[in-house]
Structures are given as structure tokens and as C-alpha cells.
Amino acid sequence: MKKWIIFAAVCCLCVVVAACGSGNKGNNADSNAASSAVADVVIKASSWEFDQPEYHIKKGQSIKLELIDGVHGVEIEKTNLKLTQNKIKTVNLDAGEYEIKCNIPCGGGHSKMTAKLIVDEA
Ligand SMILES: [Cu+2]
């Protein structure tokens, strides 16, 4: 009887350890997915330029700012849309052309950091 109880206790312990192990793996997978989450359009900013002169997007698609070097932000003129590093936002603007500019004073070339966001008909 005593042996059976010890056997049962060891089994329980194994189940708990296995559950914890797989739980941790699950968490790691989740955090990796979050940090490398994919946006439809990625703007890459460095000092002092954006990686493309124009970015095309469709209404309802998502957009993200990645920093290559320096600290920059993105403001889309005449809209409330602002992007900060690695935060994915959905673009719900009407079709048309919008000016993009850096909205964080980032040094000598700050005022040259402009580009276009072109929202295409979905
Ligand atoms: Cu700037």
C-alpha cells in the first residue's frame, strides 16, 4: 500500500514537471511571435532617411516602424496616425497620398526624413 502511494506521488510529480516544461516552451513561442509579428508594410528608419521614398498600403492593412539606427518616429500628416518603434497599427485612411515625416527631433538630418504613404483602393 505504501509503495503504491509513493508510486502515485512520483507519477504526479512527473506530470507537474512535464506540464511546467511545456508551459515554458509555449510562453517562449508566444513572445517570439510577438516580437517578430508581421505587418503588411514596414517602414525602416535610419539616420537620416526612410528605406523607401514611397510606401503603398491598402485600407485596413497594417503598418509598422522599425528602427535601423537612431531614434525616430513617424507621423502621417493631416491624420492622427503616428507610429512608434515596432508597434503595429492598422491604417484606416481613405485612398490617397499622405506625407510621412519623422516626428522625433533626431539630429542634423531630421527635416530630410520624409516619404509618402500611398493608400490604394482596397
Ligand atoms: Cu527625426
Automatic annotation (TrEMBL):
InterPro entries: Cupredoxin. Gene3D superfamilies: Cupredoxins - blue copper proteins. Residues 1-18 form the signal peptide. The keyword Calcium does not apply. Keywords: Signal. This is Cytochrome C oxidase subunit II. It comes from Paenibacillus glycanilyticus.
